Amino acid sequence: MANFLTAIILAAGEGTRMNSKFPKVLHFVAGEPMIDYALQNAEVLKPQKIYVVVGARSEEVIRHIGKRAVPVVQKERLGTGHAVQQVVPYLKNLKGDVVILYGDACLTRSQTVQALRQFHGVQDGEAALLSAEVENPFGYGRIVRAEGGTVEKIVEEKDASEDERAVHEVNAGLYIFKASLLVEALKKLKANNAKKEYYLTDTIHYIINKGGKVHALLVSDASEVLGVNDREQLAQAHRVLNLRRISEHQREGVTFLNPETVEIGAEVAIGQDTIVESNVHLLGETVIGESCRIESGSRLQSARLGKGVIIRSSRVSESQLGDDSDAGPNAHIRGGSVLDKKVHVGTNAELKNAHIATGSKVGHFSYVGDAQLGKDVNVGAGCVFANYDGKNKHQSTIGDKVFLGSNSTLVAPVIIGKGAVVGAGSVVTKNVAPGVTVIGVPAQVFRKKK
Ligand SMILES: CC(C)(COP(=O)(O)OP(=O)(O)OC[C@H]1O[C@@H](n2cnc3c(N)ncnc32)[C@H](O)[C@@H]1OP(=O)(O)O)[C@@H](O)C(=O)NCCC(=O)NCCS
After folding, report:
1. pTM of the prediction?
2. What CATH number does the domain containing 360 carry?
3. Ligand 1 contacts CB of residue 442 (under 6 A)
């Protein structure tokens, strides 16, 4: 059964250097908990089962992985080999292969994991591992290759000779083994080292000593092997992933004025010739159309923008802006707001659960909440939709071409008919008929439709 595959993710490390109350693998990197990257990399291989080895105090990790994998608790922390040994009793048959991934290896690409599996299949050795050439190999296990190019041994920093320390090819910590041989090697593991731990790399040595072949696949992008052990590495991993995503968008024709400062989620889509300025966060399921401009400091969370939209240093969350609309500076559009085409939202305006039809303008310092606005409505500066009575939220409906004067307050629920005018500073407490002008506090009819 050549295709039988089991995946094991090692996620029991306490991450002491993270100095955190939370398990290391639940820390977020570029919008997702670290372990999710490992789970995705395992899932892409379509294994029959995925086991995640977790530490003794990892209820949160177990909860997080849910049905995606089977948790296996490593009660004592006795090394990577010991961690894999914990899974052995779960392996019902020893057919096929076992792939082993690290729970903090969030920078390894899925394509690389797939390539390693393919490589293992083609080389037909007993095991294969991923390696990388790094500039500073200090602290990594060095890959020493035999004459034919197979792995001769993996030497840890403290055991390395001067020649071995000069080797820049390092062990990435991603392995694939023939299952039967892995289990055999695990049984023979000894903790005869300074730390009294069982090392997974010793299974590689066991296989080689037995005459088996272990091949190493050298990955071209060394950033794929970076693990995360402290907050500095967390930040580094975060940045690497962001820049990878940005490169993809750049290839699709998006301009980033200062890519190093942009945060971008994995699900974000951006149209051609859109310009993203500095310090912009594009998160969740944000979709941006062509030729938009996202000015510095903006934060878009699951926002949908049409073509030619300009966002000036503003926040948009769970809301839509149609073609040629613009917002800000410092606008806040949220709560499922939907703006049709050519809608203008001014400085410091806030919109919540508002539907605004084409050509309408919401002026500066205004608040429009729980409202339906028709076409070509003008919301004057400082208008407030008083949608909350202390207990419940109420809806306002504003007809086409309504003109709301500055600093007017609409006490919801209220309906303002098509073409009506509300004088500056009015407090509207009753419905206004179409074409009527109202003024005052409370607003009274000032002029009826001509
Ligand atoms: C209500 C409004 C449309 C009336 O305009 P108008 O027909 O030209 O009226 P007038 O300026 O001739 O004023 C008529 C009377 O109403 C009074 N009045 C006008 N607007 C008023 C208002 N908002 N509240 C109370 N009284 C008002 C005037 O003081 C005047 O009183 P008077 O006869 O005792 O002197 C206008 O005054 C208004 O409030 N426009 C809103 C402008 C605005 O806020 N734009 C938004 C920019 S962001």
Report:
1. 0.90
2. 2.160.10.10
3. no
Beta strand pairing status for 338-339 and 378-379?
Answer: unpaired
| Listed residue (221, 202, 185, 213) closest to 128, CA to CA | 213
Q: From 225, 246, 275, give the residue that closes a domain.
A: 225
Q: Can you tell me which atom of ligand 1 is nearest the CA of 405?
A: 44
For residue 24, the number of C-alpha atoms closer than 13 Å in the C-beta half-sphere is 24
Q: Does the C-beta of 382 come closer than 6 Å to ligand 1?
A: no
Give Cα separations from 354 to 7, 182, 316, 317, 372 (angstroms): 48, 60, 13, 13, 6
Nearest one of 90, 19, 16 to 53, comparing CA atoms: 90
- Is residue 290 in a domain? no
Q: Are 20 and 34 in contact (CB under 8 A)?
A: no
437 CB within 6 A, ligand 1: yes
pLDDT in tens, 187-245: 999 988 878 899 999 999 999 999 999 999 999 999 999 889 999 999 999 999 999 99
- Same domain, yes or no: 220 and 351: no
Query: Which whole-number Å values give the CA distances from 198 to 24, 87, 172, in the listed order?
Result: 21, 14, 18
- In a mutational test of the pocket of ligand 1, which residue from 439, 441, 445 has the highest number of ligand atoms less than 8 Å from its CB? 439
Measuring from atom 6 of ligand 1, which residue has the nearest CA?
423
Name the residue range of residue 316's domain.
312-445
Question: What is the 423 CA–ligand 1 centroid distance (Å)?
Answer: 6
Expressed in angstroms and rounded, the spacing between residue 439 Cα and the centre of ligand 1 is 8
Closest to 142 in 3D by CA, of 116, 162, 120, 160: 160
pLDDT (tens digit per residue) in 150-174: 999 999 888 889 999 999 999 999 9
Is 346 close to ligand 1, i.e. is its CB under 6 Å away? Answer: no
Domain total in the chain:
2
Give the type of residue at 245: R
Is residue 394 annotated as part of the catalytic site, yes or no?
Answer: no
- Taking the CA of residue 382 as reference, the ligand 1 atom at the shortest distance is 48
Q: Let me know if 337 is exposed, middle or buried by CB neighbors in 10 A (0-12, 13-18, 19+).
A: buried
Residue 236 lies in a domain: no
CB of 406 closer than 6 angstroms to any ligand 1 atom: yes
Residue 421 Cβ < 6 Å to ligand 1: yes
